[in-house]
Amino acid sequence: MLVVEGLTKRFAGLLAVNNASLSVAEGSITGLIGPNGAGKTTLFAMASGFLAPSAGRVLFTGEDITTEAPHRRARRGIARTFQIVKPFAGLSVRENIAVGAYLRHPQRAETLASATLIGERLGLGPQLDKPAASLTVAGRKRLEVARALATEPKLLLLDEVLAGLNPAEIRDILPLIRAIRDEGVTIFLIEHIMQAVMTLCETVHVLARGEIIAVGPPDMVCADPKVIEAYLGPGAAARLNAAEAPRA
């Protein structure tokens, strides 16, 4: 569904993403992991049209969309959430979701009806008429996903949607992510919580220093020496292997 080929992004002298290529299969939950500052959100921003790449291209369902604006990509069926959640504080929860729903439903009554259904689906039913500013962190995360889903996407990019949640809140939201995929939305997610990555993802791409260094099933990727060293530093894989080796 999504293919990025040789994506590169330079900010003056900083090479944030360097010749990164990956693909996201239709109907999958695919992960993008890596240390802080690896370039993950920059890659997401290029895939969704919020940043223009310095080089490379983006394909969606086989068509080159590299130069398309975010709203045109949204029309095609690409939606994303943002790492820093910023709802429209002066609007109700229902109205926030309706902002996304207007993309497909131009009539207000139809838009609000769609927003209501999506809000209930995301567990926000009791809060629909409350100000968005009154929501907890977990509620704002759900609202961010609901607003993106209201655009009726084919591909949903989730940028650290679990960040800031406690273990119980994470446990509650994981089934929602699976349910979204099971209802026909392909998911590409950035996540630092490895338990969630291991539970949700079929394929994981690892970005370090702007480059893709590993790809595969999550258990295989997490055991890759290059990945271990990207997170823990040079020599970490050898030290872990030595520590785990049976003593004579």
Automatic annotation (TrEMBL):
- Protein's UniProt name: ABC transporter ATP-binding protein
Q: Give the record's GO CC terms.
A: plasma membrane
The lineage is:
Bacteria, Pseudomonadati, Pseudomonadota, Alphaproteobacteria, Acetobacterales
Say which domain of life the source belongs to: Bacteria
Residue span(s) of domain ABC transporter: 2-234
Q: Which UniProt keywords apply?
A: ATP-binding, Nucleotide-binding, Transport
InterPro entries in UniProt: AAA+_ATPase (IPR003593), ABC_AA/LPS_Transport (IPR051120), ABC_transporter-like_ATP-bd (IPR003439), BCA_ABC_TP_C (IPR032823), P-loop_NTPase (IPR027417)
Recorded GO molecular functions are: ATP binding; ATP hydrolysis activity
Pfam family of this protein, just one? BCA_ABC_TP_C
Which residue windows are transmembrane per the record? none
